[in-house]
Write a structure and sequence with these properties.
The structure is a homodimer. Helices cover about 35% and strands about 25% of the residues of chain A. Chain A is built from nine helices and eleven strands. In chain A, the strands form two sheets. In chain A, strands 1, 2, 3, 4, 5, 6 and 7 form a seven-stranded mixed beta sheet that branches. A four-stranded antiparallel beta sheet of chain A has the order 9-10-8-11. In chain A, strand 9 and strand 10 form a beta hairpin. The mean pLDDT of chain A is about 95. At the A-B interface, strand 3, helix 7, strand 11, helix 8 and helix 9 of A face strand 3, helix 7, strand 11, helix 8 and helix 9 of B.
């Protein structure tokens, strides 16, 4: 099973978001599992799966063909950093697929998108062709507004497509990565410096947790601020640890955690682990869950 | 799908426990999902399922036929209250079965067990024939040792079988109930009065949480005490609420929660709810879990 989780730079206009969702849904053999739009981020995250590399690629072509004519980054404003109308397109191996297969899809799709739309494409994470271009934040730094200069630097020649930023669509970042959890925490203040302090405390790059990326974001429509996180490996840095650290840091400023948010989907194992940790369950195993156990037991006999 | 969760009064002798497990496993169409034995309780909980009422009944007959010759309650000691060698036999409706169907199985199995083993049988919970005999603790009060007197009271005439306690197997309680979660918390003390105070605080009958039953138990082999709970309706009284209340009460005595324990199996929804609660996830839905969503999406197309 292949999973694809494109992040598209439109989180407000329902007609555009719907049109993109329909394009994905209309692709044979593809299931749109989730759509998460955020008006403050001005960004939507689509999650779809397919058993077939060809079909997941086709859904992605249709997504671009629908999104690109409808999104103009020159007039796009949002709290989340971005370089592209379709900003980032990760392919993720689920059960029965390998990372190598996802890298192959990312390369094929990246090349084809560059050709069809005259769009600069950067390969990232497991698909990266240069070590210094592996991590998303490095490629995205400067944003759409700075990219016309950045792209002329030969270290930033795209992997596919022209060395000229697309006037309305910017550049797109395509790659393959392990499943990650997009996890946001809303803080009960409008002081963005509190979210900044929490993001700095929790993210690996500034001394926090190894597998956490974090950004401070203002949620103007809610009068709150947000710590927007990517948990890159929940087995080694579980959700509850990131949560505890941000909660603790916010408290130091007299600020409470109002709520948290899963963007897209979360693996069951990550949720079980949170529950197990808080309840201090000894010797926890996934097979303690009734439905998991039934699935294993009934699979045993059928083959 | 029918589930059956017999509690057997043997938690130490591996050969007896294994023989019973083998008897269940050997029944066609039945899956033994879980076996949990506790030496301090001197009790084992078997969890098995079947699509067929006949087959789940057959597994239960085999369980009794194997357990009864091997267990002598006259020489049985354990920290958990009991009245029978096979103490209590609940049938539970899972997806695709009704409570009414489980009541029917309980009645049929109860009658047949009484006939085969000359064993007094009490029907409880949804299968109960008298309102005052609906709840397990009421039927079990007095234990095996007091039952020879209790059974002569006409209010305690068994639903099936003789009005004489079986010399080695006592009496058995058979019925139908909703899925419950057997959840124990271990406290860092050997003072059983702390567990007693916590049990009193948390259980519905003494003023605590409506859908919680709780007993204090000494775990002599571990030098700890335990609050042994049944959570009868996790949708209305979720695990984290019982956990928080016991933790708070234990702290008042300067005692910490060392660990907790799931006996048998726990529904996935109950684990998700614990995680959601601690993380304060807004608008949580089960479909936010990747595997749940994939299951729904792929089920949609197949039929």
């Amino acid at each position: 099973m292949f999973e694809c989780v494109p992040n598209v730079s439109e989180g407000r206009d329902a007609s555009t978001i719907d049109a993109i969702a329909e394009a994905v849904r209309g692709t044979p053999g593809v299931h749109l599992l989730n759509l998460h739009s955020d008006p403050d981020h001005n960004r939507s995250v689509f999650t779809y799966i397919s058993e077939s590399a060809e079909q997941i690629a086709e859904a992605t072509y249709r997504l671009f063909a629908t999104a690109l004519p409808r999104i103009d980054l020159r007039i796009h404003h949002g709290a989340h950093p971005r370089v592209g109308a379709v900003d980032v397109v990760p392919f993720v191996p689920l059960e029965g697929t390998t990372m190598a297969a996802c890298v192959e899809v990312a390369e094929r799709v990246g090349e084809e998108l560059a050709r069809r739309h005259d769009l600069p494409i950067y390969l990232y994470e497991h698909a990266a062709r240069h070590e210094y271009r592996r991590e998303l934040p490095v490629i995205r730094s400067g944003g759409f507004e700075q990219f016309p200069t950045k792209i002329t630097d030969e270290r930033w020649t795209p992997d596919f497509g022209p060395s000229v930023v697309h006037p309305t669509a910017g550049v797109s970042i395509v790659g393959a990565r392990v499943p990650l959890i997009a996890f946001n925490m809303q803080l009960g203040t409008d002081r963005v410096e509190v979210a900044q302090a929490c993001a700095r405390a929790v993210r690996g790059i500034s001394g926090g947790l190894r597998y956490v990326r974090a950004l401070p974001i203002e949620l103007k429509s809610k009068g709150l601020v947000q710590v927007s996180m990517n948990l890159l490996d929940h087995r080694r840095t579980p959700i509850q640890r990131a949560f505890a650290l941000v909660k603790e840091e916010a408290e130091r400023y007299g600020v409470a955690v109002v709520s948290s948010e899963i963007v897209g989907l979360v693996p069951a194992a990550a949720m079980y682990e949170v529950a197990e940790w808080y309840l201090r369950i000894g010797g926890w195993r996934r097979e303690m869950v009734l439905e998991e156990k039934i699935r294993l037991a009934t699979r045993d006999t059928s083959g």
